[in-house]
Design a protein that fits this description.
Elements (H helix, E strand, L loop, with lengths): L14 H8 L3 H27 L12 H6 L10 H23 L4 E3 L2 E3 L4 H18 L8 E2 L2 E2 L7 H33 L5 E5 L5 E5 H12 L1
Antiparallel strand pairs: 1-2, 3-4, 5-6
Helix pairs in contact: 2-6, 4-6, 5-6
């Protein structure tokens, strides 16, 4: 059975319908636009990264990832290496910097969302997702080289392995960015006007569900 929709007794609108009729704050609209743009970039990355691995010839597949990507002129047959390098710079590196900053108690940023040293909820989102990813892959994301035998970044990965890892890191990056943007949107909605439906007494009637807008109208009419 579908859940019962709570509607205002006076205007008949739901909470979302009230919010839509009044209009959303520009900050909330901006965040929705950022989420939509992020989803477009994510979809484009997913399509491209899903093809890269199949475009590597068997003769090159065991070569070092960093070496191949760093020397595109030597591997002109792999015309997508420029896209791979761009993805490293625009997705992997910002994520690595953000992870390192948060772990060192420094302000970080992902997709324009700032994570302050004291912002425990956002730090928790970043670190929880990152640490689960690192455990699953047996590889640290921030820094380079090894730490207690644990490899970092793309170190030691072949071009085939590196492309697969890049695809996973990209998925992690966009997942974290989406969660942070959604959290910022929720914060913005809490700071903005509240359009709720709650029980209130209207005149001599028993308590009935009334939206915030209608409650304010009734209150104004009584006070006039």
């Amino acid at each position: 059975m579908a859940p019962k929709v709570n509607r205002c007794w006076m205007c008949g609108r739901t909470t979302e319908e009230v919010r839509s009729s009044v209009g959303r704050p520009p900050e909330e609209v901006q965040l929705d636009n950022r989420l939509e743009r992020m989803e477009e970039i994510h979809a484009k990355f997913s399509r491209a990264s899903g093809e890269w691995g199949s475009l590597v010839s068997d003769q090159f597949r065991s070569l070092d990832f960093e070496f191949v990507v760093g020397n595109p002129g030597q591997f002109k047959a792999m015309r997508f290496l420029g896209e791979v390098d761009d993805a490293k710079k625009s997705i992997v590196m910002p994520l690595q910097v953000a992870i390192g900053n948060v772990r060192n108690g420094i302000e970080a940023s992902i997709g324009g969302v700032k994570i302050g040293p004291l912002d425990e909820s956002r730090k928790r989102v970043l670190l929880k997702e990152t640490e689960e990813f690192e455990r699953r892959n047996g590889r640290r994301l921030d820094g380079s080289g090894t730490n207690g035998g644990t490899p970092r970044g793309f170190d030691g990965l072949s071009i085939g392995q590196g492309l697969a890892f890049l695809k996973e890191v990209g998925a992690l990056y966009f997942d974290i960015q989406e969660k942070l943007l959604e959290a910022e949107k929720e914060d913005e909605m809490r700071r903005g006007p509240v359009f709720a439906i709650s029980n209130a007494r209207v005149g001599e009637l028993l308590e009935v569900p009334v939206c915030t807008v209608c409650q304010n109208l009734v209150t104004s009419a009584i006070s006039a």
